[in-house]
Design a protein that fits this description.
Helix content: 40-55%
Structural class: alpha/beta
Mean pLDDT: 75
Number of helices: 11
Low-confidence stretches: 93-104, 332-339
Distance between the termini: 63 Å
Shape: elongated
Length: about 350
């Protein structure tokens, strides 16, 4: 990179910095709880612009290209440009919403998050994620969905807390789960999903299940992300905690802090496929009990689709759930042409 190219790069960085500065001001007005962090960032960015302008004057001097530090300077300029582009994308309202809403959930919520965005990213990165858990993950790109004319007789309407779709092997449970997850994604209601698979590493047990769900939940809204990250900050050993403790800290308590601007509760959908393939029977029963507890939430109502074979451990797990919190549908009792 010669002096002219470096000068052009610095000019572009200054222009981008000014745009980021403007976006930061807009963002600060919308996110009151992060105002102090954003104001501090605002001051730092203004100082950074001054440095860039000084560098611009430096590289306009042809003698500057002869300096031994010039090469490292130009590399720093390039890296800085990449960082600013990333920051600009995160601050743009439309791009930020797209990036933060992996499943497109719309959350009209009030926030009281105390952690700054950089701190949130740092804490969230400490959670473990089960690769391939998502219905639309790269690992599952060749798996099938229901055809439009093959599910007229079976439509999943989750009216109660948990809808258990059970059936023998080969009855189409996973296909319907994927199709349902995709449908709720289009409706902007899918908050989290995990497709278990026996013998498939992290997806054959519940070890990374709740941290995976927490990461997916965090992607639905900045507010929920903040609550989850505050929980991680308070319980830094959360990856090693029991299933119940992880559920309480990463899922239940953040959801219980939600305060919606709407009078009606916010409905979020979870999808768990092949629950019978996620390891120990006691873990399965514990997970069902934890899911049933979400009925106590006020501002948020979870609707959960669970698919599995009708194994005894799962049947007993559902029987142990108190009240009228679940419904079940036996898929292998339906004629094949309907499915």
């Amino acid at each position: 990179m010669d002096g002219i190219s470096a000068a052009a790069s610095i000019i572009a960085l200054v222009e981008m910095s000014v745009k980021v500065l403007s976006l930061t001001a807009e963002y600060s007005a919308q996110v009151k709880s992060a105002k102090k962090d954003i104001d501090r960032f605002h001051v730092e960015l203004e100082a950074f612009i001054k440095v860039l302008r000084s560098l611009h004057e430096l590289v306009q001097n042809t003698e500057a290209t002869k300096l031994g530090t010039f090469r490292s300077l130009t590399q720093s300029i390039q890296q800085c440009g990449q960082d600013l582009e990333h920051l600009q994308m995160r601050l743009e309202p439309d791009k930020s919403q797209k990036a933060m809403s992996r499943y497109g959930v719309s959350l009209p919520l009030e926030s009281d998050v105390k952690l700054g965005l950089a701190e949130q990213d740092r804490y969230l990165s400490k959670l473990s994620y089960a690769s391939g858990a998502n219905f639309d993950s790269n690992e599952r790109q060749n798996e099938h969905y229901c055809l439009s004319d093959t599910r007229n007789g079976v439509r999943i309407h989750i009216k109660k807390g948990i809808f258990w779709l059970n059936g023998m092997a080969g009855t189409g449970k996973s296909t319907m789960a994927r199709t349902t997850a995709r449908t709720f994604t289009k409706q902007k209601r899918l908050a989290a999903n995990c497709f278990f698979s026996r013998g498939w590493g992290d997806l054959s047990n519940t070890g990374k299940l709740l941290s995976t769900i927490a990461i997916q939940l965090a992607a639905t809204s900045l507010m929920l992300k903040g609550y989850i990250c505050e929980a991680i900050a308070e319980h830094e050993n959360v990856n090693r905690q029991s299933l119940r403790e992880q559920w309480t800290n990463l899922i239940y308590q953040p959801l219980s802090r939600v305060r919606s601007k709407s009078k009606s509760p916010l409905v979020l959908v979870f999808v768990f496929d092949a629950l019978d393939e996620c390891g120990r029977q006691e873990d399965i029963r514990t997970l069902l009990r934890l899911l049933a507890e979400t009925e106590k939430l006020e501002a948020v109502k979870l609707r959960v689709l669970v698919t599995s074979r009708p194994e005894l451990a799962i049947q007993l797990g559902f029987r142990a759930i108190w009240g009228d919190t679940h419904e079940n549908f036996v898929l292998h009792n339906i004629a094949s042409p309907v499915i």
